[in-house]
Amino acid sequence: MKLITAVVKPFKLDDVREALSDIGIAGITVTEVKGFGRQKGHTELYRGAEYVVDFLPKAKIEAAVSDELLEQALEVITTAANTGKIGDGKIFVTNLEQVIRIRTGETGNEAI
Amino acid sequence: MKLITAVVKPFKLDDVREALSDIGIAGITVTEVKGFGRQKGHTELYRGAEYVVDFLPKAKIEAAVSDELLEQALEVITTAANTGKIGDGKIFVTNLEQVIRIRTGETGNEAI
Amino acid sequence: MKLITAVVKPFKLDDVREALSDIGIAGITVTEVKGFGRQKGHTELYRGAEYVVDFLPKAKIEAAVSDELLEQALEVITTAANTGKIGDGKIFVTNLEQVIRIRTGETGNEAI
Amino acid sequence: MEQLTELSYALDTFYFLICGAFVMWMAAGFAMLEAGLVRAKNTTEILTKNVALYSIACVMYMLCGYNMMYPAEAVNSIWPGISFLLGEDNTTVDVLASKGETYYSTMADFFFQVVFVATAMSIVSGAVAERMKLWAFLSFSVVMTGFIYPIQGYWKWGGGFLDQLGFSDFAGSGVVHLCGATAALAGVLLLGARKGKYGANGSIHPIPGCNMPLATLGMFILWLGWFGFNGGSELKISNVEEANAVALIFVNTNAAAAAGVISALVTAHILFGKADLSMALNGALAGLVAITAEPLTPTPLLASIIGAIAGIIVVFSVIGFDKLKIDDPVGAISVHGVVGIWGLLAVCFSNPDATLVAQLTGIASIFIFVFSASFLTWKVIQSIIGIRVTEEEEYQGVDYSECGMEAYPEFTNSGK
Amino acid sequence: MEQLTELSYALDTFYFLICGAFVMWMAAGFAMLEAGLVRAKNTTEILTKNVALYSIACVMYMLCGYNMMYPAEAVNSIWPGISFLLGEDNTTVDVLASKGETYYSTMADFFFQVVFVATAMSIVSGAVAERMKLWAFLSFSVVMTGFIYPIQGYWKWGGGFLDQLGFSDFAGSGVVHLCGATAALAGVLLLGARKGKYGANGSIHPIPGCNMPLATLGMFILWLGWFGFNGGSELKISNVEEANAVALIFVNTNAAAAAGVISALVTAHILFGKADLSMALNGALAGLVAITAEPLTPTPLLASIIGAIAGIIVVFSVIGFDKLKIDDPVGAISVHGVVGIWGLLAVCFSNPDATLVAQLTGIASIFIFVFSASFLTWKVIQSIIGIRVTEEEEYQGVDYSECGMEAYPEFTNSGK
Amino acid sequence: MEQLTELSYALDTFYFLICGAFVMWMAAGFAMLEAGLVRAKNTTEILTKNVALYSIACVMYMLCGYNMMYPAEAVNSIWPGISFLLGEDNTTVDVLASKGETYYSTMADFFFQVVFVATAMSIVSGAVAERMKLWAFLSFSVVMTGFIYPIQGYWKWGGGFLDQLGFSDFAGSGVVHLCGATAALAGVLLLGARKGKYGANGSIHPIPGCNMPLATLGMFILWLGWFGFNGGSELKISNVEEANAVALIFVNTNAAAAAGVISALVTAHILFGKADLSMALNGALAGLVAITAEPLTPTPLLASIIGAIAGIIVVFSVIGFDKLKIDDPVGAISVHGVVGIWGLLAVCFSNPDATLVAQLTGIASIFIFVFSASFLTWKVIQSIIGIRVTEEEEYQGVDYSECGMEAYPEFTNSGK
Ligand SMILES: Nc1ncnc2c1ncn2[C@@H]1O[C@H](COP(=O)(O)OP(=O)(O)O)[C@@H](O)[C@H]1O
Ligand SMILES: Nc1ncnc2c1ncn2[C@@H]1O[C@H](COP(=O)(O)OP(=O)(O)O)[C@@H](O)[C@H]1O
Ligand SMILES: Nc1ncnc2c1ncn2[C@@H]1O[C@H](COP(=O)(O)OP(=O)(O)O)[C@@H](O)[C@H]1O
Fold first, then answer.
1. What pLDDT is recorded for position E413?
2. Which of D395, D406, D414 sits opposite B11 (nearest CB)?
3. Ligand 1 proximity of A10 Cβ (cutoff 6 Å)
4. Mean per-residue pLDDT of chain D
5. Does residue F117 form part of some domain?
6. A98 CA to chain C: closest CA distance, Å?
7. What is the C-alpha to C-alpha distance for residues F207 and F210, in angstroms, rounded to an integer?
8. Ligand 3 pocket residue status of B76, Cβ below 6 Å
9. What's the distance, CA E119 to chain centroid?
10. Closest CA–CA distance from residue E301 to any residue of chain D (Å)
11. Exposed, middle or buried by CB within 10 Å (0-12, 13-18, 19+), for E390?
């Protein structure tokens, strides 16, 4: 099993979620994060002095998937989150040694 | 060393924390996240139109543990977070290659 | 490739970010988290009764780095985030199996 | 001469209306105070309660409350009898013929009175916050504003037995504040504490309010409104003595509140080592409630002392109720009830016409009647539709279960 | 005797000024209401609009608006002519010579009138919120407060053709509220809905306001201010009849608002099963708008009924506009426009001087003129500087693009 | 005739009280403005300061301040002497005998004056926000409201040497606003800037306020309160001329504020390319402060111009103080001090009795005295209990260290 972590533009969150759901991945966990990357934040003003808001709000999506679904999942995320503009975000994949569903105690692929 | 990531109902957070602390895991990091899964969100109203708040607030707990403590930790989390109702959440385990305590520079099991 | 996850004191965030940037790691993702560890929270008052705010606000920094940069990155984070006081935080390293840049579809080290 | 009488009538009416408008503004004050002192997930509901209770008070008091409180012909000195809707206002001829007896518009009087009822009812909403069903609360407010409040109001201000007995309550420490607090107490006892407020071994878990600037704004609004509340209760301003009286009331009202802030802040600092803003706010309101029973006869210095003592009382009272596990999220029972009693007793310091016996009789009568009537009403409502939301609804927040709407959708994780 | 006339003049002037101050306070009410009902990312901008439009209204009305609305010598009953700046106030000699005809200060009148203009303009800002360019809006407000409002105001209150026709609009359900709502409608039609508000297949996506306590505070401020709005429109208080009239207006204004809250809340509960606070707030304002056309002749009971019907109308109107995909974030067109019309028609129930024909003529004249003039103005502005922000700016929030400043930098993730 | 005198006395007293109530409301305005412009972690403390300082002002001014400012018998034209507590109010006999000399209640006068003191003190709290110790601030406010303010107040309004010199300050651009700003400046110089505000190489790091709607509300409250502030300073309304005067003051006060908004907004837009709301708010207050020195003699057009210039001045002044590394989180020194001076000088444009020399002497006297006295007081407090919180407390927020309580516990990560 793999854990996919995708950092995307917040307004693409719904698209990614739907795309994942279409291929059978209904469970995901989302966190509001601040991204720093090539895309730069903007400057704001306050009482005549400028200051840089140098982070950009991003949505971090975590989804545990079975090994079989991995490739497909990466593909649909890449497609759904793409705008072609800088700041579209990144996907990270790590290995998952175990997954447990708390309610039932199921483990492994059943638990995803 | 392993990294345990548990997504649980927010009001179970204290129980899980105490349970972990009882078996000697005092350090954890908690994030407020939005969960999407089988459990569905609710609908809210605003000026006569309904809309779905489709995520559910969850608490994500991250705890680095030594290999020995892993099984016990998983057990107490599962027990403490269980309500038997849908939406109880999931536990993910990944391998930790290294841990460093910033203050002292200690690494490995000592750093946990 | 490795994923570095550092939990640090919020007011050290800027220092860490600059230190990473200096060694060529410009992309990071930051999350506001609540830390529980040896360092204890404080008590607050409300209408004559005390209560403990037992967590401490921390910043979680995630940075994907190439294997070569790992050691250097760990070093500069440890140095930049260090205050020598309890609660300085921890660094976790996990293995990254894959990285994808959504905009271009690049993968691996190019995508970092 | 006639024109002078008319002008005098106009000034008194105008003064009454402005004071009434200030008191109406207190409705906003209670709404903000309470919205600031509850958690985010219960904010929409407490706002809805406050907006609705004010409206219900206005309707019920017009329908029958006003007539019960100020009956044309009372049945006896305890039961005023019932009649409906407002009558005609004074004609110019009547006013001129009255030789100064009729010196303000009846409608202005109604307006001033109706905002008082709303105040009494507002006190209740804070105490039962975060756990009571919305419609149970609104049902209670129909009974309270249409019947319970007017009946005991009649006893004093409508010329009933308390008035005849010499009970002294200038602007309503008893009739308004103690009355409201007593109804609240009855509700709170039936309702029980919020979940998680009291731990197993006597421990108390504070539940901090989510928005202190809002609570502070509410306090300031109430302070401002109180000038109308007390100042208008003089009922007349159109000659030198009356004008001086109103001015003194303004000064004393302000002095008592100011002293209440300082004493509550200092007391809290001595007890807890920190400057507890929530206690300072309660201190201001305590000073205001205390001086309400008699804002005219004390000197400004005595008014300050009365307010200062009120500020100390309220701190200990809030702590005391928590020890008794009587859960009052905003401290309404302490501020309006306990301090209301203090205010009624303090009348004896400066008003030679007041007697301790009469004051105690008044306090007891109001408390016993309002408590019994309210308890009964709450009980009836409880048996029909229930008064408390379910545990799950309470955990999720009554905003969702009662109003289906969040107060701050972007600032918190919804449904927490 | 002369001293009496002077005193009377002083009282009427003072009453006027206080009522004016209450209406000025409504500017804060609109600002809070609108800031509470938009999203966090558009809050700074709506606040800026509200502060600026009030200021522009004050300047423009002083420069030429007041003179157009109350011309010394009108050109004809439709076009008042133009002249600039305010004249001198009444001299003591003139006042005494006028035998009671001149009974208040012209400056007080100006002050009272100028806050009305601002009210009309405030209505617009809510309806076009979250997507209109700031400077386009401010440009419109120059034309609106300097010309459009004064011209139609002249028709009724300045003695123009609507007044001669017997059109009845006591405090401005038409002249102020319908006028503002009509200008808003023209703007909204040109502007289009907020992105994401209406889905493909007729679906409606609510965009909840970010701060309900603020919206509630705004409503309470407006309610309070309305006592000045309607109460001051009697223009005189200095004898028994006038004082009674003002008192009745206070009572009726309050009653209509209270009834509006209750009926809107109950209607919403029946329709949606929940107590929708945003509808309760709209209900209060609807009651207030409805009674504004005639707050003097109804009994308090009739005033309550008029307000209650307004509360029902507003709920259906809000839903209806959404069905028509006319996107009005705060419900301003429903509250001030649709209910304004209801109020103007309801005059016929109690005021024997009002005729349905005159009322309909008035409604039609105001609507057609204001709509055309506003549409034209919006169009001109659109062709010169554009009226809508870009899609990206809208997504990011107009706070950043227009003001460069966040309203709540610590409570939300900026730039969302 | 006697009745007429009494009625006239009643009207003037009532007018005074209402104006006083409006000014009291300004305390809420300052509290909201400042709470909106600081960071979330310092909000409870600034609220506590505002509530407490108002209360302390009320107590101190009653104890000795009022008597010092308006001494029965002054020692000389610089030092008024000391005496305690308020005296009796005027009797009817005295009033009637005075032939119109005594035309309002002394208590009403006290009430009006006491809210002025609080205003002066409120100015200080904003400037020293986010880093000063609570109890150090409160200690200063005892000295300021009991002694410093009354002494210089005596010089002008109590009939001291500035009055004799012909210094002209109608409602307190100098006595209230410059005085408050000067005390603030002395405090800020001793206190130093907030940590992180000024970078190494002359860089300035803005620290945005956490709640702009609150700041905007505060500004509106102040604007409303200012009608009482300036309007009440006429002291009399009961004849045609006085009524006209009060009306003109209302109009001019409003005009200056409106013009201040527009000019500040435009200036900011020209300088920064964005419509800076915080500058618009400061612009309104600048307009108000500027017109306060003389709201009666200018025409509304001139009042607008004076306000407009004030709006421009304030923008540059705010930027200028930042360049000088004088850290004033809310811009109080610019708004009340720099613009206060502008207002005092602008008196010469319209008031033929004012001379530039007298105005400059007044400005210098107030500035030098208040600065020295304040600096000394701050120094003494500093040496006894310290005036600045520790670096760690500042980082964590003074809410925790001084009040032990968060303002928005659910909206931010605590202790940040
Ligand atoms: N090395 C990294 N480690 C962790 N997060 C990263 C890394 N690089 C980028 N990110 C995240 O991805 C987001 C987008 O990256 P950015 O460089 O701005 O755009 P792009 O990927 O299109 O070149 C960043 O805001 C950040 O949250
Ligand atoms: N595949 C997944 N990847 C990441 N998070 C998941 C996944 N499945 C579920 N979750 C998280 O677990 C929570 C509970 O899952 P849910 O399916 O609702 O309940 P249950 O686990 O009881 O069936 C979700 O809200 C989501 O945060
Ligand atoms: N085992 C752990 N797993 C996950 N996070 C941890 C763990 N131990 C500590 N942390 C995080 O590191 C932070 C600092 O740890 P703490 O024990 O307070 O200080 P120190 O590392 O200096 O001894 C904690 O607040 C918590 O967020």
1. 57
2. D395
3. no
4. 95
5. yes
6. 15
7. 9
8. no
9. 4
10. 8
11. exposed
Residue D211, domain member (yes or no):
yes
Which tokens in the block code for residue E61?
């009305």
Give chain E positions within 8 Å (CB) of F411.
410-411
Task: Indicate whether D281 pLDDT > 50.
Answer: yes
- Record: contact D15-F14, CB cut-off 8 A: yes
Ligand with the closest atom to the CA of C20: 1
Flag if E281 and D51 touch (Cβ within 8 Å). Answer: yes
pLDDT by 10-residue block (mean), chain A, 112 residues:
95 93 93 90 79 87 96 96 92 96 92 88
ipTM above 0.90? yes
Nearest neighbour of E237 by CB, restricted to D10, D36, D47: D10
CA distance A112 to B15: 24
Helix H or strand E segment including F192: none
Total-model pTM: 0.96
Q: Which CATH number belongs to the domain containing residue D96 in this structure?
A: 1.10.3430.10
Best mutation target, A25, A102, A112, to test chain B (most B CBs within 10 A): A102
Query: Encoding tokens for residue B23?
Result: 């078996």
State which residues of chain E have pLDDT below 70.
413-416
Q: How far is the CA of A20 from the centre of ligand 1 (A)?
A: 21
pLDDT at position D89 is: 93
Q: In this predicted model, what pLDDT tens digit does every residue of F162-189 receive, in sequence order?
A: 999 999 999 999 999 999 999 999 999 9
From residue C31, how far is each of A30, A34, B98, C62, D32 by CA, in Å? Answer: 12, 6, 21, 8, 33
The overall average pLDDT reported for chain C is 91
Measured distance CA(E178)–CA(E182) in Å, rounded:
6
Residue D408 lies in a domain: no
Measured from the Cα of C63, ligand 1's closest atom is: 3
Say if E415 falls within a structural domain: no
Report whether pLDDT(D415) > 60.
Answer: no
Q: Cα–Cα distances in Å, from D376 out to D179, D181, D379, E241? A: 15, 16, 5, 45
Q: How far from the centroid of its chain's Cα atoms is residue F113's Cα?
A: 12
Span from the CA of F65 to the centroid of ligand 2 (angstroms)? 67
Distance CA F174, CA F190 (A): 23
Looking at the CA of residue C103, tell me the nearest atom of ligand 1: 22
Nearest to C35 among B29, B94, B101 (CB): B29
Report d(CA F369, CA D290) in Å as an integer: 40
Q: How many domains does chain D have?
A: 1
With CB atoms and an 8 Å threshold, state whether A38 touches C29. no
Look at residue F413 in the predicted model and tell me its pLDDT.
Answer: 57
User: What is the Cα–Cα distance from B46 to B48, expressed in whole angstroms?
Assistant: 5
Residue of F nearest to C50 (CA): F404
Q: Exposed, middle or buried by CB within 10 Å (0-12, 13-18, 19+), for D361?
A: middle
d(CA D32, CA D407): 13
Residue with tokens 């901008």: E45
pLDDT at D414 over 80: no
Q: Which candidate from B46, B50, B51 shows the least CB-CB separation from E278?
A: B46
Tell me which residue of E275, D296, A74 sits closest to C97, measured CA to CA. Answer: A74
Atom of ligand 2 nearest to the CA of A29: 27
Exposure pattern of E59-72 as b/e (b: 16+ CB <10 Å)?
bbbbbbbbbbbbbe
Task: Give chains near C: 3+ CB pairs under 8 A.
Answer: A, B, D, F
Structure tokens at F165: 């010199």
Quick one: which atom of ligand 1 is closest to the CA of C29? Answer: 27
Among all bound ligands, the one having the nearest atom to the CA of C6 is 3
Task: Render pLDDT for B28-77 as a digit per residue (tens, 0 to 9).
Answer: 999 999 999 888 878 887 887 878 888 888 999 999 999 999 999 999 99
Domain, as residue range, for F277: 2-403
Are the C-beta atoms of residues E216 and E281 closer than 8 Å to each other? yes
> Which tens digits make up the pLDDT trace of A65-81?
999 999 999 999 999 99
